[in-house]
Fold this protein.
Amino acid sequence: MAYNMTPEARRGQLIADLHGLADYLDRHPEVPIPRYGPVRVSVHPIYDTEATTEAEAIAEVERIAGLLGVPLRVENGHHIACANFGAVSYEAVLITQAAMDRRAAQDSYCNNISPDPPKE
């Protein structure tokens, strides 16, 4: 998808591409599909909307939850609005900087810990 498309054109192209995928899979039953699903369409407000700050992105996830008619989930710095359509889901996700920083701090030790006993 071209980056220089208008929002309306990008939306139309995404919808056409989703129809194209569905039609292709329908015509080619030999092509495997996810066994357990779901297939996700994910929107990340900082990248996919006009939100430029974390606060604006959180507000955008809240707005999307309202549009979808689903509750907003906030878990450990993850703000999520998710609507399920059978094996396909649409979600808007914002992970706060504080949550990403906590994860980075946890991961900073990963190369210092080994399940194997030290070699002598």
